[in-house]
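Not sure how to ask, but would you mind making up any protein sequence you like and the tokens describing how it folds?
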Amino acid sequence: MPADWNFASRSKDPSPVGSALFIALRAADVYLQYALIRHAFTPGTLVPYIGGSVVAHSTATASSSLFGLGLTPYHTLIVALAAGSAAKQMVWQAFISEQTMPPTFALVIAGFNTALNSFNTLLSLYSRTSAVGPGGGLAFSAYVGIAMYVVGMALELGSEVQRKAFKMKSENKGKPCGEGLWGLATNVNYGGYALWRGGYACIAAGLTWGGFVTGGIANDFVTRAIPSMEDYLVNKVSFLAPFGV
């Protein structure tokens, strides 16, 4: 990332091209995850050679499956997780975010989310990692993951909506939001993202992978994103102080 990432990523200049690119890439990710499940693993591919097998992912006919996707309920859930993550981020970009989204940022952010979703999808197809329980049902880790995903999504999206409403009030200009969910933690939206990302991973490949993803994202926030935000706020306050803001 560039040295001034913490400032450049918080610019509020219009960015219609980058925003459109980001929304298009996130929408395309949903189809990609579906295509990976339906077509990526066929007999003779890599999986059998690394000591595993492909779990059942297709039903007999598309008409007999949920939503006509031709997938088992478990892998329909995997696609639904990708759709939920894409929908949340598309809504955020289109209606909530005030930050500029240059094409480079759009590629990096969408690319990271697509790469992580794709890895989860592949793990969900591998018999040694998939969270498919006995008889093809969901394993315990998948139910834990569903709870984490729902709570995390509610925390992230809910906090961002609340902050948007707070910032729209003229008397709150230049003030940090401390209302609602923001009263729970200074970076509650970051915690929500880490939680639902970890839940997604649990559903795809169990508690160990889910814990690794949650911990990795949380560590990135603590060591990079949050210090970057604090540095931005300190410099912003120093800049605005002479103007009485």
Notes: The mean pLDDT is 83. Residues 11-138 form one domain.
